[in-house]
Amino acid sequence: MPKSSKFILILAAMCLGLSIGLVSLAQTTEVKLDERVEPEDLELKEPKILPDSRLYFMKEWSRGIQSFFTFGRLKKTELEQKFASEKLMELKKLVEEGKVNPKVLEKATEKYEKSLEKIKALAERIKEKAGEDENVSKFLDKFTKHQLLHQRILQKLEEQVPEEVFQKIKEAREKHLEKFGEIMTKLEDRTEKLRERLEKQMENIEGSKFKNFKNLEILKELEEKIPEQAKEAIRQAQENALKKLQGDLEKMATTDQERFKEYIEKISGDKEKQLEILENLKLPLREKINAK
Question: Among candidates 206, 148, 203, 201, which has minimal Cα distance to 177?
Answer without folding.
Answer: 148
